[in-house]
Amino acid sequence: STLRTFLWHTFIHASMNSSMFSERSALASWDPFLAFVDHWEEKTKSFRSDGDLCFGQPQEKPLAALTETMGRVIGAPQDSDTFAYRVKIAEVQEAIVRNLQQSRGLTVDAEDVFTTNGALSALTLTMTILANPGEAAVLVSPIYFVYRQQLELMGIEPVVVPTTQDFDLDVAAIRRAITDSTRFILINSPNNPSGKIYSMETLQKLTDMLNEVNEGRPDRPIFVISDEAYNRIVFDGIDFHSITEIYPYTIMIYTWAKTLLCPGERFGYIALPHIMPREVRTRLRDIITRCQIAGWSKPNNTTALTYMHAERDGMRTDLTVLQRRRDKLHLCLTAQGWTVFKPSGTFYMLVEVDKTMFLSAEDFVDALAAERVLVMPGFIMEIKDHVRMSLTANDAMVDFAIKAFAKLRKKEAPAA
């Protein structure tokens, strides 16, 4: 079936079966991303994908140093605490603090670092702490496809604000979206899926606006959740800046899954910057710790220790390989006549749907699938006229995809 038909059937099925469960689960019962995953899996049963550019999955073997370190941590534990129940591991927190100071100049106290089993659990925990059911959060489109479902499952209203034409923050639009019920704004830089990195100038405008808003609500300042999963996947020597450097009510989220290209190994953290008022940090410290003791988002000890060593040893995926793939795809697809947004970071690139050839992103995705190339439709990320490609595809897949795009251009292009 086509992608559009498949999505419609899954929507009807979810609508018919939602009354049995909680209203919050019903709100998120039809998730476009999960529906697309089902469609993608169905497609791959009938053919072998020679150009899988859909997800940010590793298509090559993991870093040898990472697997060696993991084997050493698991196979030769240093003390009896290796497999003990531990909410916090001091040496891991201290390694994170050192890295933030050395690489970013960001001051964070070790007691204000909370390790989690990945960034998604860190986000869910942070969202739950900041907002009550019925309150609102501002998201900036295009969004990471899990954000909306996370909020809806918690009963928090997602208010989606589009970015500018070049995917930068529209601070005026964000201001218009803020109401008395707004508790936080969630930003993601470098952004998945656009690859946009918000400049310090843009972040300062956002900070100035929020400081002004907070003057009228001193007891309930608006927080910013800064999802920085890709803050080390940056191209062209660009300096990455975080709003944690300038806005005191920011909570930073990070994961090592991107830096080391191992998304199945779940480890991340929450960090509270030192510029956050002390009394606010103290209260958040208590709340987060209590939630983690209650079973929320506690990381695996051996994974945490592995990443501590990876951090100390400076392990990371090869950025030159990712940048080379980005440059090749951008150069070749642009030459073919496609409109491609060149990312400054992340694993991803956006290609605009040519409306003279396709009615929708779903049709574009189906046409590429017919050529054995898999990409993600933009509507999942609330940007309907684009598709997303992943740079984690290997070089052979990238070359195959470039040829497939060229075939489409010749096959589908309207007559002159």
Automatic annotation (TrEMBL):
Q: Which CDD domains match?
A: AAT_like (cd00609)
Signal peptide location: none
- Annotated GO MF terms: pyridoxal phosphate binding
**What's a Pfam family this protein contains?**
Aminotran_1_2
Q: Write down the superkingdom of origin.
A: Eukaryota
**PANTHER family documented for this protein:** ASPARTATE AMINOTRANSFERASE YHDR-RELATED (PTHR42691:SF1)
Please report the name of this protein according to its UniProt entry.
Aminotransferase class I/classII large domain-containing protein
* Positions of the Aminotransferase class I/classII large domain: 53-404
**InterPro entries in the record, alphabetically?**
Aminotransferase_I/II_large (IPR004839), PyrdxlP-dep_Trfase (IPR015424), PyrdxlP-dep_Trfase_major (IPR015421), PyrdxlP-dep_Trfase_small (IPR015422)
